[in-house]
Specification:
alpha+beta; Four Helix Bundle (Hemerythrin (Met), subunit A); four-stranded mixed β-sheet; DinB/YfiT-like; MDMPI_metal-binding; Maleyloyr_isom; Mycothiol-dependent maleylpyruvate isomerase metal-binding domain-containing protein
Length: about 230
């Protein structure tokens, strides 16, 4: 049971420190796990990112965080083409060096994301989602869950609070209180979700939910995807 309470209007009040807390939790759980894996594991394919290996995903994540830390935002940054260039630039690095950069980024990006006024909050959430993608590829438990889930759900509520995003009332099996996501301005009646937190994250991240038991009414899953634009 996740000991989390989420006020109904959580997405209306941004917590600038929340992305950094999420990244710190992920640093303390994911990085030690990865440092204990064999080099062959870094070559495993990641189903959520077709054409990418575990190493590619980690290189993408470490590069994105480094850009935040170093304030490098040239034209086209974070586009698919930019992401591929970032991965290619790290092709000659050892896996340990990629992990070193990732650890530095997970440590140092939080304060800068906090100062960005919400512009980079989705990036922090995406880093955490990619950590789940890597766990799936490695066969590790806790993908899209674990210690970071309460922070991720609250951040997801804030990120989806922008105008026009479908409102959704989520009754979670693993949270103390319901979670409200999306735009609750009254333009559209809220959809309803019943299930666990990791599955809700998968839906919003556009990840497969095959074989998982949940209920979703009043909205198509594709409308929820925050990384599809």
């Amino acid at each position: 049971m996740v000991g989390m309470t989420t006020p109904a209007d959580v997405h209306e009040v941004r917590d600038p420190e929340l992305p950094g807390r999420l990244l710190t939790v992920e640093r303390d759980t994911l990085v030690p796990l990865l440092r204990g894996r064999a080099d062959a594991d870094f070559a495993l394919p990641v189903a959520a990112c077709p054409g990418w290996t575990v190493r590619d995903v980690l290189a993408h994540c470490s590069a994105a965080l480094s850009r935040v830390v170093e304030s490098r935002y040239e034209e086209g940054v974070f586009s698919p083409e930019s992401n591929e260039r970032d991965i290619a630039e790290r092709a000659g690095w050892t896996n340990a060096r990629v992990l070193d950069e990732l650890e530095r980024g997970l440590t140092g990006a939080g304060p800068l994301i906090a100062k960005a006024g919400g512009r980079l909050d989705r990036l922090a959430l995406g880093e955490w989602v990619h950590a789940g993608d890597v766990r799936v590829a490695l066969g590790e438990p806790g993908a899209y869950g674990g210690a970071g889930l309460p922070y991720a759900l609250t951040l997801l509520s804030q990120v989806t609070g922008r105008p026009g995003h479908p409102p959704l009332h989520a009754d979670l099996d693993d949270a103390d209180e319901p979670v409200r996501l999306g735009d609750f301005s009254g333009e559209r009646p809220p959809a309803r979700y019943i299930g666990d937190g990791p599955t809700l994250v998968r839906l919003y991240a556009g990840r497969p939910v095959d074989g998982v038991s949940y209920e979703l009414a009043g909205v198509d899953a594709a409308e929820l995807n925050i990384f599809g634009d």
